[in-house]
Design goal:
Blueprint lengths: L2 E3 L4 E8 L3 E5 L6 H4 L4 H7 L1 E5 L17 H15 L4 E6 L1 H13 L3 E7 L8 H8 L2 H7 L1 H15 L4 H14 L5 H4 L6 E6 L7 H10 L3 E6 L6 H4 L1 H14 L1 H7 L6 H4 L22 H8 L13 E4 L20
């Protein structure tokens, strides 16, 4: 798998597909291929998808004791897209990755073609309390050894044995201390945005998601019924359908935004292969998704009718879609 060297880090990432660039940021304790496994079959048909591992996760080696902050993750994202020569790009973020994406958008919205956020909150609570409880290594070892083994599988090969026991407290500490985005910050996110959350998300109450939606200038809100924090894992059919509709509706705007200003770092370098002219997004690739939704749900189920509708609101217009997946036991995620 490729590595991209930055000033203080070698970022491990995977890349799939062809088309306009799309960067997908995973949640805490996870990796991109884990969190977005149900999206990749469709997304890589329409985009060139980049999935970087956050520092301390997967193959991006980093020692946790000095602490981990949102500021570091935002800087890492900037260094990553600059290193690839991506002047503008689509951005997706889940939980920890969603907060990274949103914070980046408050500062560099001109570089984003679209923004898709899952499980993101700008309030301290209940995120901090839930993170403190769920990110306790002693509790995990005592009560959930299966999850401990999964964390070791994800991070041990790249970070060293037991590294997740140092990573998780660092993540919880950042949630408790990170500066909160203000309404003034959020008004700077002038990019088409899709905000998704589950109605049973223990990290993000629906009322908080609605409040965040109202503060974003060009947002659509999707509340997924009978769903936990991991919307794209637990209800992949609904999520993929909503994402497809979002990208179809915003394609013209995204094409216009693709001519945005180049990053200073990219402007100083010769044009790398990643920045060569790209294929235009063929939105038809996102249109016939029903076959993929059935396959990704994993149970061969039928459309769930009224039960599987999204509660959706939008300034320009939002839609609901069919499809559902079996409940998924959430672990981690911030």
């Amino acid at each position: 798998m490729p590595l991209l060297a930055t000033a203080d880090l070698e970022i491990h990432y995977t890349v799939e597909g062809a088309g306009p660039p799309l960067v997908m940021l995973h949640g805490a304790t996870s990796t991109g291929p884990e969190d977005f496994a149900a999206q990749l079959p469709a997304f890589r048909r329409a985009f060139r998808v980049y999935l970087p591992d956050a520092r301390g996760h997967g193959g991006t080696r980093w020692e946790a004791p000095p602490g981990l902050t949102t500021e570091q993750l935002v800087a890492d994202l900037g260094a990553f897209v600059d290193g690839l020569g991506l002047e503008t790009f689509h951005l997706v973020g889940f939980s920890l990755g969603g907060m990274t994406a949103l914070t980046f958008a408050t500062r560099h919205s001109e570089r984003l073609r679209t923004l898709l956020l899952v499980g993101v909150d700008v309030e301290r609570q209940p995120r901090a309390s839930v993170a403190k409880r769920l990110m306790d290594p002693a509790r995990i070892d005592r009560e959930d050894p299966e999850w401990a083994n999964e964390l070791e599988r994800r991070h041990g090969p790249g970070q060293g044995p037991g590294a997740w026991r140092r990573l998780l407290p660092a993540l919880a500490t950042d949630v408790a201390r990170q500066p909160l985005l203000t309404p003034r910050d959020l008004r700077r996110v002038r990019v088409p945005t899709l905000l998704a959350c589950g109605d049973r998300d223990v990290f993000v109450p629906v009322t908080h998601a609605a409040a965040l939606y109202r503060q974003l200038p060009d947002a659509r809100l999707l509340v997924v019924p009978a769903c936990d924090h991991q919307v794209m894992v637990s209800r992949p059919g609904l999520f993929n359908d909503a994402a497809g509709r979002f990208y179809r509706e915003t394609e013209a705007v995204a094409v216009g935004r693709a001519g945005g200003a180049a990053s200073p770092a990219a402007a100083l370098r010769a044009t790398p292969p990643e920045a060569m002219p790209e294929p235009r997004l063929d939105i038809r690739l996102f249109d016939p998704l029903w076959d993929e939704r059935v396959d990704l749900a994993g149970d061969g189920g039928e459309p769930a009718g009224d039960e599987a509708q999204l509660t959706a609101t939008s300034r320009p217009g939002a839609h609901a879609g069919p499809g559902a997946a079996p409940p998924h036991k959430p672990h981690g995620g911030l």
